[in-house]
Design brief:
By secondary structure, this protein is α/β, with parallel strands linked by helices. The chain has a single domain, classed as Vaccinia Virus protein VP39 (Rossmann fold). Helix content is 28%, strand content 28%. A seven-stranded mixed sheet has the order 5-4-3-6-7-8-9. β7 (165-177) and β8 form a beta hairpin. α2 (24-32) packs across α4. The longest helix is centred in the first third of the chain and has 14 residues, at 4-17. The chain starts with a helix and ends in a 17-residue tail after the last strand.
């Protein structure tokens, strides 16, 4: 039976390098972060499979390839300040923390935020701050950001997130309806934004003022 490090290596070789993930620092982070510690204990044996997994409260941990792709598209530098929208399990947060100077992560669900914050602290990540709030409004007090990565889908690109990018900053997020989206990269150049549509994806909805309405409150 393969140990966790061997399973991570297999995941990187077969799911990432065999596709289009080539950024050395992204691949190194994916090899290092123990994905099985970010999923429920009864699903840990599936942690390195090629697919998303439920983490509770109607949320998921994204497919490893999608995590790597979004990170590669964001291209965080070691000195970057990055905002993550949708902490979830904290796995994407940990990958970002391996690659940039500081990660500010925003989660709507207080229970998930507390769990993820504790897990990241236990793993020794000191360059992460987890906040509870409406991800569609971003975190203006900590802006501007070099990069923003949203792990939840918005119907349109939230205006506050565009404005919280510094010039040259990148925003990576899924945009579309609840039943399917396209991953987009937005680059701010002074007071203009370049938008690039990348690949079809499927994410949980970003619920908030500039996202989707909360169905549970209807």
């Amino acid at each position: 039976m393969m140990d966790d490090a061997a399973l991570r290596e297999q995941m990187v070789v077969e799911q990432l390098e065999a596709r289009d993930i080539s950024h050395p620092r992204v691949l190194a982070a994916m090899r290092k972060v123990p994905r099985h510690l970010f999923v429920p204990s009864d699903l840990q044996h599936l942690a390195y499979r090629d697919g998303p997994l439920p983490i509770g409260n109607d949320q998921t941990i994204s497919q490893p390839y999608i995590v790597a792709l979004m990170t590669q598209v964001l291209a965080p530098a070691e000195t970057d300040l990055v905002l993550e929208i949708g902490t979830g399990s904290g796995y994407q947060t940990a990958i970002l923390a391996e690659l940039c100077q500081q990660v500010f992560s925003l989660e709507r669900d207080p229970f998930l935020a507390e769990q993820a914050g504790r897990r990241l602290a236990d793993l020794g990540y000191t360059n992460v701050e987890v906040y509870v709030g409406d991800g569609s409004q971003g975190l203006p007090d900590m802006a501007p950001f070099d990069g923003i990565l949203a792990a939840a889908a918005a119907p349109t690109i939230p205006g506050p997130l565009k404005l919280q990018l510094r010039s040259g900053g990148r925003l990576v997020l899924p945009v579309g309806g609840r039943d399917g989206q396209v991953l987009e990269r937005v680059i701010r150049i002074d007071d203009a934004w370049e938008v690039e549509r990348l690949v079809p994806v499927m994410f949980v909805p970003l619920v908030g003022r500039y996202g989707f309405p909360d169905r549970k409150r209807r």
